[in-house]
Amino acid sequence: MSEPIISGWNVLDAAHQALRSTVRNVPDQDWDAPTPCSEWNVTQVLQHAAGDQLGYAAAITGGPGPDDNPFAPSGTLDAAPMEVLEPTLAACAAAWATIGKDTTEVPVPVPPNSLDAWVGAGAAALDAAVHAWDIAVATGQPSPLTPELARDLLKAAKEIVEPLRPYGAYAAAIQDDGGDDVAALLHYLGRDPNWKA
């Protein structure tokens, strides 16, 4: 397999690696396992995450977006999991590699549909990394979120999440108990750091 495409945006590259390594290590028997996204199993979270990454690429390039609605994943894969995921990560990374660090307006597939470059890259990263966490905890893997990544993601989250909560993209925030950076991020996104199936 060829080397992954690097976007040059550290937060996005770290998030893509988190999702890539988590999906690669899902045991065969766990693709139907429940996840913290209560309506979706592991396969559906993968489909959603892959579709979202392709959506971020399409917003920048004007190229094709996902064939299926990422918010209504079927739960049936037409190819091996990494064959589903990797092209979407590559497309997203390649698109973000064209964006200068000082760009003030980058098209994105979430309201307000244009963000400054750092926040936009952070939004794409947030989607990838948090769904990596969902898949990891659903399949008995260690959390792929590092404190450094969680801190960067929380900065991006605070720029984009509130307008999306009414649409169900994120649950209501959970009161943070003053724990670590990863717990602070998960609480803000309405996720329980101690979630169990």
UniProtKB/TrEMBL annotation:
Pfam families: MDMPI_N. InterPro entries: CHP03086 (IPR017520), DinB/YfiT-like (IPR034660), Maleyloyr_isom (IPR017517), MDMPI_metal-binding (IPR024344). Residues 12-136 form the Mycothiol-dependent maleylpyruvate isomerase metal-binding domain. It comes from the Bacteria. GO terms for molecular function: metal ion binding. This is TIGR03086 family protein. It comes from Actinomadura rubrisoli.
